[in-house]
Amino acid sequence: RMPTNGQQAERTFLIAETLAKLYQLPKPQFRPPLINRPKTNLTNAPKNLVVIHPFASAITKNWSHEYWAEVIEWLTTHNYHVAIIGGPNDSLQLPDELKNKVTMYAGTLKLDESAALLANAKLFIGIDSGPGHIAAALGIHGITIFSSVNAPTRWRPCRTDAKWIVLHKAPDDRAKYPMERRELPAGTIGNPYTDGITIDNVIKTIQKVT
Known about the structure:
Elements: H1 8-22, E1 49-53, H2 65-77, E2 81-84, H3 96-99, E3 102-104, H4 111-119, E4 123-127, H5 130-137, E5 142-145, H6 152-155, E6 164-167, H7 199-209
Parallel strand pairs: 1-2, 1-4, 2-3, 4-5, 5-6
């Protein structure tokens, strides 16, 4: 049976321990996932690179586009180079004057190229999604704007030597906004699963991590 406590990778690994015991094999040792830095033509990244992945697979994991714009504006005015990654159908609503200050890679990078870009980043910022786990496995410092639709203790990036901070604020009305929902109730304004995480929270965390 799947254990009910711990990070998901560790929960899954405990099944391997059970199998080893069952077949009288040496007990396996859990190691956090780490990957070597890939070599591609994207490795010559600018200094003070911050890679942002703001696109969620479910609306309940999203953070406000207006909030992202404020954070990106702060980064660009504090001498950070911002690169945004995502899929071919992802689009971030930014003011025109801010679009020229960032590099948009959404839909243009293969998986290994995204990893190469992340490997050269000073910091990763994103929602709960795959690129955050890749950044953590590369040992990059990171911030996850984590929707309270999922449990951060289970789904946050696995143990890493890098500084990694998960920002998380559950909605006041948990009965109306329960766990594991992909859609918001009709008539919902904003996203109660992430609205409790403020712009100020994120900026102060950036200052702490960097």
